[in-house]
């Protein structure tokens, strides 16, 4: 009996020892795996640190290049604007104040010079505006503005300079609205862009309507034309930089636009704490551009 009990206890000890040794080996293997994983993690972390350092350096270089680009655009635009303005002035004088009669061909050539110079000056001005906006160098000087009054000025300016050629009719829906808080020069630039686009894409004999809506907190101004319209798939791209769209509103061959006007308008309206958006029933169904500005308190 004693022998049997001794053997039983010995068996228990052997089993316990077996499981202990097995567990010890498992722990040893796990520790080795942990050491390997720790080493791999340390290597990965080092690689991540190296990559982060490279990315930081590359990002700084990109910022430096972007700053140089902005400086180059600004300086070049300033240098271009002066001679282009002189060319436009002398071409206008040659066309309207010539001492001798001009032949039909010469008159046509001078008109082309004027149009091309005007387009180049507008492009230079757009590039300067973008440079100032994107480098936070543009100043907004808000004041209380009568929207109806400034819209009348814009309509008169656009009508007598361009609208008569296409026999476009302007309709200004006047109503009592509060004054808005905005920078008059920046607001004027936005309106010239939007009304100019409406005129540009209107068919001969068409109509452009300007109207207003207010809820007492903001005033919405809309410019509606009856022109070539905008496809639904293109509406979201209108206010992007160089947003000329294929077979659409900003890609009409006769437009001559740079694709910068609406992008600049959006940035200026946002800087004046407003919003701008567009809508259209589709191609050849006209377009409506609307912007909102806060009411002047």
UniProtKB/TrEMBL annotation:
The protein's annotated catalytic reaction(s) are: ATP + protein L-histidine = ADP + protein N-phospho-L-histidine
Point out the coiled-coil segments of this chain: 27-65
Could you tell me which residue ranges the Histidine kinase domain spans?
75-297
What keywords tag this UniProt record?
A: Coiled coil, Kinase, Membrane, Phosphoprotein, Transferase, Two-component regulatory system
SMART domains referenced in this protein's UniProt entry, alphabetically = HATPase_c (SM00387), HisKA (SM00388)
Q: Which InterPro entries match?
A: HATPase_C_sf (IPR036890), HATPase_dom (IPR003594), His_kinase_dom (IPR005467), HisK_dim/P_dom (IPR003661), HisK_dim/P_sf (IPR036097), Sensor_HK_Regulatory (IPR050736), Sig_transdc_His_kin-like_C (IPR004358)
Q: One Pfam annotation, family name?
A: HisKA
Note the CDD domains from the entry: HisKA
The Enzyme Commission number assigned here is: 2.7.13.3
Gene Ontology terms for molecular function: phosphorelay sensor kinase activity
Under the heading SUPFAM superfamilies, the entry gives: ATPase domain of HSP90 chaperone/DNA topoisomerase II/histidine kinase, Homodimeric domain of signal transducing histidine kinase
Q: What is this protein called?
A: histidine kinase
**Source species of the chain:** Candidatus Daviesbacteria bacterium GW2011_GWF2_38_6
């Amino acid at each position: 009996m004693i022998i049997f009990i001794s053997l039983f206890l010995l068996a228990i000890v052997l089993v316990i020892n077996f499981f202990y040794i097995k567990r010890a080996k498992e722990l040893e293997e796990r520790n080795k795996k942990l050491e390997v994983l720790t080493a791999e993690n340390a290597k990965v972390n080092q690689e991540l640190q190296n990559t982060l350092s490279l990315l930081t350096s590359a990002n700084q270089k990109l910022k430096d290049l972007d700053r140089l680009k902005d400086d180059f655009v600004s300086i070049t635009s300033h240098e271009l604007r002066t001679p282009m303005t002189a060319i436009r002035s002398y071409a206008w004088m040659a066309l309207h104040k010539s001492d001798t009669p001009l032949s039909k061909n010469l008159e046509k050539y001078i008109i082309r010079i004027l149009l091309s110079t005007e387009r180049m000056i507008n492009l230079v001005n757009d590039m300067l505006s973008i440079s100032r906006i994107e480098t936070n160098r543009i100043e907004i000087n808000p004041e209380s503005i009568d929207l109806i009054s400034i819209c009348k000025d814009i309509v008169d300016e656009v009508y007598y300079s361009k609208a008569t050629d296409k026999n476009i009719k302007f309709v200004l829906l006047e109503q009592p609205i509060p004054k808005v808080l905005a920078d008059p020069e920046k607001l004027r630039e936005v309106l010239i862009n939007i009304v100019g686009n409406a005129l540009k894409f209107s068919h001969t004999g068409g109509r452009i309507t300007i109207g207003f809506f207010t809820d007492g907190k903001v005033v919405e101004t809309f410019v509606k034309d009856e022109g070539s319209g905008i496809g639904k798939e293109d509406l979201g791209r209108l206010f992007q930089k160089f947003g000329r769209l294929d077979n659409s509103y900003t890609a009409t061959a006769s437009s001559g636009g740079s694709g910068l006007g609406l992008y600049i308008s959006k940035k200026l309206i946002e800087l004046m704490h407003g919003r701008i958006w567009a809508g259209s029933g589709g191609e050849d169904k006209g377009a409506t551009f609307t912007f909102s500005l806060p009411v002047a308190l």
